[in-house]
Structure formats: C-alpha cells, structure tokens
Design goal:
alpha/beta; Transcription Regulator spoIIAA; 5-stranded mixed β-sheet; globular; transmembrane helix; anti-sigma factor antagonist activity; transmembrane; STAS_dom
C-alpha cells in the first residue's frame, strides 16, 4: 500500500488563475433614442462578478433618469445577482431613476419568482417592451409592472405590449 500526501500534490500544481470579472461577465452600455441607458449583461452573475457590476450600475443610476438592465444574456444567476438587483433598485429609487429589468431566461426568472422579486422589480421580457413601457409611463402615468400572482391590486393589461403575463398599475 502506497500512501500519498494529497496536499503536497495539490500544492505542487500550478496555482489556479481566476479570470478577470470582465471576462466572466461582459457588460455593454448604449443610449437608446428615447434617452434611456440600456445596460446588457452576459455570462454569470455570481459572487465573483457582481461586485464590479454593482459599482457600474450604481454609477449609471446616479447619471441617468431611465436605466434598462438587460439580463437576457445571463447564463447563471446566483444570490449575489439578486442582491445586486435589490441594492440597485433601492439606489434607483433614491436617485429618482426608473429601473427596468429585462428578464427572459429561465435562470433569472426562476430566481426572481422564488424570491418574490417579481412583484418588486419593473420586469419586462425584452428591451423594446421596456422602452415602450417607459414611454407610456412618461406620457400616461404608468407606475410599475407587477406579477399577476399578486392579488388584491387594481391592475390592467399593459397597453404597450398586450402581454397578459404582466400587469400594470395606474395612478
């Protein structure tokens, strides 16, 4: 029987190199014709990548009145991603910035449904829908998109999208 010291073998190998946060989660920003800032996130939203995203989104919230966070390209959405959304939402409220979140993929939507953030965030299925609803909100006083699972709220189908899976409260 041969005894092998596993710690020596592990320590003798090359040290793992963690990719930079930007490599794991590319983030692109563009200004929509309406003046809304669209930030698209791709890759994994986890404890490694979210601190950089948090800082970037907080800076955007302070510099714009309408921010659309497009999570369509997110392949993994961990607890750190949920934390970033909650913190950025609060910062947006304090800065008088309208935050819209585009969440279409299963990893993101499932996490938002399980945690109840579906009823808290202004959620959309694509960027175009978010832009149209921003226009309706400015022109007609729309407040927020909510989940139909929330009962007791006075709600209408969003006239901008005719999407019956999300409802719109009106002031």
């Amino acid at each position: 029987m041969v005894l092998v010291d596993v710690t020596t073998i592990v320590a003798a190998g090359p040290a793992p190199i963690a990719p930079a946060a930007g490599e794991l989660m590319p983030v692109t920003s563009r200004m929509a014709p309406s003046g809304a800032l669209v930030v698209a996130v791709h890759g994994e939203m986890d404890a490694t990548t979210c601190p950089l995203l948090h800082d970037r989104l907080i800076a955007h919230v302070r510099s714009t009145r309408h921010l659309i966070l497009d999570l369509t390209g997110v392949s993994f959405f961990g607890a750190a991603g949920l934390t970033v959304l909650v913190v950025v939402r609060e910062a947006a409220l304090l800065a008088d910035c309208r935050l819209c979140v585009v969440a279409r993929t299963r990893p993101v939507r499932l996490s938002l449904m399980i945690t109840g953030l579906v009823g808290v965030l202004d959620l959309h299925t694509d960027v175009t829908e978010a832009l149209v609803c921003l226009t309706y909100q400015r022109e007609r006083g729309w407040l927020i998109l909510v989940s139909p699972a929330i009962s007791g709220d006075r709600a209408l189908t969003c006239p901008a999208t005719s999407d019956s899976s999300w409802l719109v409260l009106r002031a």
